[in-house]
Design a protein that fits this description.
PurM-like_N_sf; 60s Ribosomal Protein L30, Chain: A; Phosphoribosyl-aminoimidazole Synthetase, Chain A, domain 2; 339 residues; metal-binding; 2 domains; alpha+beta; 11 strands; nucleotide-binding; five-stranded mixed β-sheet
Length: 339
C-alpha cells in the first residue's frame, strides 16, 4: 500500500508545489514555461523568448460524449493550451503537438472530428499541428503541448509579479461556460431565453483564447510604466485565478462583490454568483496592473472591467471581499482535479 497522502488529499496546488522540487526554482509557478537562453542552449540576441505549455483533457473528467461532440473536444483541447500561452503574454501560437490515447473500439470518425476541431481553432488563432503520438488505453485522452513566442516589445505575464495596490482586471464575463454545462445537462434554468441558452452552450463548447486581450494590454500600456503584469487564465474559475495571483505575489486579493463580471445570461439565476466565481472554463485572463494601466486597458478592451485589488497579505488568507473584508469560502462543488 502507498504511504503518505493521496493525490485527492493533496489537491492540485500542493501536488504542483511538490513536483516543483524536481525542476529549477520557479519553473512550475506560472500557466506555462518561459524558455530562455539558459534552457535552450542559447538563442539569437533579440529573438523573443519561447513559451511552452502542456494540458490534458480526459474523458469523463474534462469532457463527455453527453455534452459535446468530437470536434468540440478537439477545439477545447487546443483552446485550453492556447489560453495558457495568452496568460503568459503570447499573442498567438507557433504550433502544437498532440498525444492521443483511446481504446481500440474508438471510431475513426471521432478521432477525425477531434483533430478537425483542433485544426479549426488553429486556423482562427495561428499555429500548426507539429506532430505527436498515439497509444491505446482504457479511456480517451488528448494531451496537447503548445508552443508560442512572446511578442517583440512586450513582456511576460507572471503570476508572482503583482504588488499591493495593483488593480485586478478581468478581460471578460464569467459564469457563462458553467451555465452552458447546466443547459447541456438539462438542469432547471428558469427565465433563460433560447438565445441565452445557445450562447452559453457555445461558450462551454468553443471557448476562445484571449490573444486579443494581450494585444490590447500591450497597446494600452502608459509610456511612463515599465512592463510589470501579473496574471493567469481563469480556466479553473475566477476566484481560483485571483487566489493564485495573490499567493504567488505574496498578497491578498480582494474582490468587489458589486463589480463581479457576471455574464449577462446569468441574470435571475440563483447560482449566478457561485458560477461566476467558481464555475470555471471561461478562459478569460485575470490581471493585476498598476491603476493607470488598468484604467487604460478597460477603456480599450470591450468587456474588461475592474474587479478588485491586491493588498498586503491578510491573516485570514489570500482571497476576500472588499465589502467588509473577510475571506471568500470555496464551495464544496468547486472543480477539483483529483476528486
Amino acid at each position: 500500500m502507498p504511504e503518505g497522502p493521496t493525490l485527492a488529499q493533496l489537491g492540485e496546488g500542493e501536488l504542483i508545489r511538490r513536483l516543483g522540487a524536481f525542476a529549477p526554482p520557479g519553473q512550475f509557478d506560472d500557466d506555462a514555461a518561459l524558455l530562455g537562453a539558459a534552457l535552450l542552449g542559447g538563442r539569437p540576441a533579440g529573438d523573443p523568448p519561447l513559451v511552452l505549455n502542456t494540458d490534458v483533457l480526459v474523458e469523463d473528467v474534462h469532457f463527455s460524449a453527453a455534452t459535446m461532440g468530437a470536434a468540440d473536444v478537439g477545439w477545447r483541447a487546443a483552446a485550453a493550451n492556447l489560453s495558457d500561452l495568452a496568460a503568459m503574454g503570447c499573442r498567438g501560437a507557433v504550433g502544437l503537438t498532440v498525444a492521443l490515447v483511446a481504446p481500440g473500439h474508438t471510431p475513426w470518425a471521432w478521432v477525425e472530428g477531434a483533430y478537425a476541431g483542433m485544426a479549426e481553432l488553429l486556423g482562427s488563432h495561428g499555429g500548426v499541428l507539429l506532430g505527436g503520438d498515439c497509444s491505446g488505453g482504457r479511456q480517451r485522452l488528448l494531451a496537447v503541448t503548445a508552443l508560442g513566442r512572446l511578442p517583440a516589445g512586450g513582456g511576460p505575464i507572471r503570476r508572482g509579479d503583482g504588488r499591493p495596490g495593483d488593480v485586478l482586471v478581468s478581460t471578460g464575463a464569467h459564469g457563462i461556460s458553467r451555465l452552458g454545462l447546466a443547459v447541456l445537462r438539462g438542469e432547471a434554468l428558469p427565465d433563460l431565453p433560447a438565445a441565452g441558452r445557445e450562447r452559453a452552450i457555445r461558450a462551454h463548447r468553443r471557448p476562445v483564447p484571449r490573444f486579443d486581450a494581450v494585444a490590447a494590454l500591450g497597446a494600452s500600456r502608459p509610456a511612463a510604466l515599465d512592463w510589470r503584469v501579473a496574471g493567469c487564465d481563469s480556466s479553473d474559475g475566477l476566484a481560483t485565478a485571483a487566489s493564485c495571483l495573490a499567493v504567488a505575489s505574496r498578497c491578498t486579493a480582494l474582490l468587489s462583490r458589486s463589480d463581479l463580471p457576471l455574464a449577462a445570461e446569468l441574470a435571475g439565476q440563483a447560482q449566478a454568483e457561485d458560477w461566476c466565481l467558481w464555475g470555471g472554463e471561461d478562459f478569460e485572463l485575470v490581471l493585476a496592473l498598476e491603476p493607470a494601466w488598468a484604467e487604460a486597458l478597460v477603456e480599450q478592451l470591450e468587456g474588461a472591467r475592474w474587479i478588485g485589488r491586491l493588498v498586503e497579505p491578510q491573516p485570514w488568507g489570500p482571497l476576500g471581499w472588499t465589502e467588509g473584508g473577510g475571506p471568500i469560502a470555496s464551495p464544496t462543488a468547486a472543480f477539483r482535479h483529483f476528486g
